Amino acid sequence: MSVLGIDQKLRRSFNKLKHNGSERDNNANCEPMDNSIYLQTFMHHWNNCHQTFLQYEPESTQVQDDVINVCAQLEQMIELIKFESSCERKSIMDYILSENVLGELSAWTKSLPFQLSGPLLNLQLSLFDYFLPNKESSPQLLSHQTILRPMISVLEQCCSEQAEFSQDLLLGLIHSLTVIIMDNQEFIQLFISLHDKKLILISMLTPYLHKPGHLGQRAKESMLMFVSMSSKNKLVESIIEESNFCVILATGLSGLFSSLPSCIELSDPTWYKLDLSDAQRIPELNTMMSSLELCSAVIDVSPPAISRNLLELIESGFLTSILGPALASQTEQEAVAYTSYLNLFITEISAESLSTLILRFLLTAEVDDQLLKDIIISRINGSNLLSTVTLNLVETLLSFNIEDVLFSLVFQYLISCNHLLPGVRDKINQPDPQFRAAHKFLTLAPVCCDPPVTPLTPRRGPLVSPRGGAVAPFPLGSGAVHNHHSLTDLEGVGGGSTNYDEYLREARQLIRNTMIDCIQWMNQYDARTVMPARKSLSHTPARNIIQGLKQGFQLERDPREDIVNMCEGSYGGSSMSGESSGYLSGNWEQDAEEVHLSPEEEKEFWTAVGGCEARARLKSVLSRMQHEDRLSLSSMGQDEPGHEELSPRPSLHHPADDGPGGTYGSSGPHSLGLPLVTTTPPTCNVGPLLTNLFICVQGMDKNTLALNLRLTSVISKLASFPQPLLRSILTHPDPVLQPGCPSLIQAICTVRSRIDASMPALPGAEEAVKMARLSLNARVSPERKSSNAAVNALSSLPATLGEYSRRGSKLFGISFGGRKSTSSPSTKSANAIPQHTHRMAMAAVVLEEWIQELAAIAHAHSLAEQQAAILG
User: Which of 750, 757, 858, 713 has the alpha carbon at shortest distance from 273?
Assistant: First the structure.
């Protein structure tokens, strides 16, 4: 039987109405005759449905035919409703409300077997969703019981796991209802279940929160609207607190993380991190990131009780149980993958409290009785790929400029000052007005590379001026370095000063931003200020510990230091002939007034120690040592061939086992509120992070380019912090460290000496250096090249090396413009150069540019200190 009647009159009438209706879709009004035809046709279809309902027999074999017939009738009824939507008078809607059409339809659907009800549920969902988008009429429709009750009945039927229906239509209807409830929150009561006091819409959304694709996105958007309502509506807040929403959201992260690939397929050898574009190509990772975004949004907009509950569940159900063991994996491929995932999570999470939770977990969590951070740091000297990925994670942690992060990774090992020579605590805070640290770094360029041309750089030989005469190098203490014009004056000489000027500008901006963040730190880390303990884990007060350390250092004085101090006190800082290099004296003339001798006392002293001849000999030795160019050597003389390299530090045990110590921490926006325990080892120990970084620096000639870029970026970021304790390890120009204590200068000298010893004997070394510069220059993004200067910043180099973003600093620019070869090396000559020579040359060029970056950072620190002294 045709659904439009046997005589086909209604079919012809319907087709006519359909044709006319399509022509009048844009008309505001309809003729009364058309309106009556719509209603007449609709009533005919409904009567056929009603007859089917009355004749329905559940056990009959005609049930499936009845469902097909009702579905066909309902499809035509929906079309008629849409045709009538352009008319002023809604006679069909009035008929539906008065005759309870939807109520009878939903009741009959509920009586059907679940395997047959799917098509009818889909049609009803689409019909309800069609009623709701109109913001003006939707609230009025929901106030009618003949609309609301059938709608709730259909939603309840969809809650059944056995029901077959369109999830897209269901989530679309729930989203439309959520939008209406957002504007009319009094309707919330209409959707609360009477027997369990739950909001049916929230209960239906939670199973879809972690679904991939647009289904999960639609569910997340709807759920987030309810969460935002909870901050202002106590009823919604209590419903969400009593629901399983937070549990499903937190435990879902564990399931999604477990489904992530444990091995990342690498098509690019320069790859080192994941970004959002990679997430788009990995469906599992895309779903994980979407759920993390939902967690961040929920934490941001929800009331404190809900956000605290969610954070606790994420910590216990995801971080501790899943993420921690995954990061401690012994398999290299898994360690690379999970470390990359973690770095992406930290980078993209927007909620500050969630980021704080993850950072605190990384710094304090234990896996198999070993600190997770120590496990991660120990991988810095692993394989090239694992080391690169680990350094990228460390760089991400440092980029937050949070005191507790730096304390946990660096300062807790330095505050005991065991790495400093006796009696130099105050001296590491002395300013560097003559930029000796910058000068020291600039003398460390490999011999195979042209030395950087800057006002601070001592030349190996005389420079040839454009007029043919020799150009003397700028004196170290000259005021020319204070004038930027003097930097550009050397462009005609060497063509490299523009590069250093760019380094200096970027360094000053980097240090300025870092100092702004560090202003809010609680502690100065200057080896003088006693840091207040937030929560002591030891019975010994922190102040007593620091005082004991001070007394210990005063008892352990170095004889060499006594000689230097004695001579400074006798002669005074200004009596020395020539410009002091400060290498032994440390430019610490300010402290020389500790000993004041009258002329009679001075004469008596020199008579006692050997007379005037002894005095003259000592003065001559000191003058020669101060004028000797030893800046290219390490402070302990380990630049010579055959030196002993740094040995890896043993695995770190839990700080709580290190004996007495205080607990130091901080609070505020740049703190994690960590109850960290200081370690006070009896011997020199700068901590696992710095130790592993220095070991990695010593192997720069063996590292890949990707690893060297990440390594230099991390250390440059550390060097940008203004705290004197850290600068004493990284950029201090004087020998303030204990013998055998590793330092950055020592590590650079080690790799520099290895490069200098190897490069002269390698075939094609000079050509390889040129090719290395050209190769790096070619990788720089063209859009970032400066049109006004011959400088291509290595801050833009990462864009073409698999997104090597050096977030720690914008520095490390390579000024290849002034050193470009007039002709590029041929392919034949390139193939003739061994791979080992290529690698060594690339390391030399990277090292050459990095020492300029470090010099600029040290230079910028000195300028910042002078500015602070003037303004202070």
Answer: 713
Q: What is the DSSP letter of 741?
A: -
Full-model pTM? 0.73
Q: What share of the chain is helix, strand, coil (3-state, %, to 5)?
A: 60, 0, 35
Q: How many CB atoms lie within 10 A of CB 38?
A: 22
**Partners of 742 in the β-ladder:** none
- Residue 690 near residue 729, CB atoms below 8 Å: yes
CA 406 vs CA 129, 342, 414, 687: distances in Å: 54, 19, 11, 12
User: Rounded to 5 degrees, what are φ and ψ at 356?
Assistant: -60, -40
Give the single-character DSSP code of 164. -
Rounded to whole angstroms, how far apart are CA atoms 207 and 290? 15
The half-sphere exposure of 230 on its side-chain side, counting CA atoms within 13 A, is 27
Strands 663-664 and 470-471: unpaired
Q: At what angle do helices 304-314 and 245-258 cross, to 10 degrees?
A: 30
Tokens found for residue 389: 């990925």
Q: What is the largest CA-CA distance in the chain?
A: 138
Q: How many helices (H) and strands (E) does the chain have?
A: 36, 8
**356-359: long-range contacts, CB 8 A cutoff, minimum separation 24:** 356/672, 356/673, 357/311, 357/314, 357/315, 357/319, 358/319, 359/397, 359/400, 359/402, 359/404, 359/405, 359/672
Give yes or no for residue 809 having a pLDDT over 70.
Answer: no
Backbone angles phi, psi at 106, to 5 degrees: -65, -35
- CB-based contacts of 623, cutoff 8 Å, min separation 6: 576, 577, 578
- Lookup result for tokens 């700028």: 474
Q: What is the pLDDT of residues 640-661, one digit of tens each?
A: 333 333 333 333 333 333 433 3
Instruction: Specify the pLDDT at position 398.
Output: 95
Structure token digits, residue 150: 């059938």
Contact 412, 531 (CB under 8 A): no
Question: Read out DSSP for 400-433?
Answer: T--HHHHHHHTGGGTTT-TTBPTT-TTGGGS--T
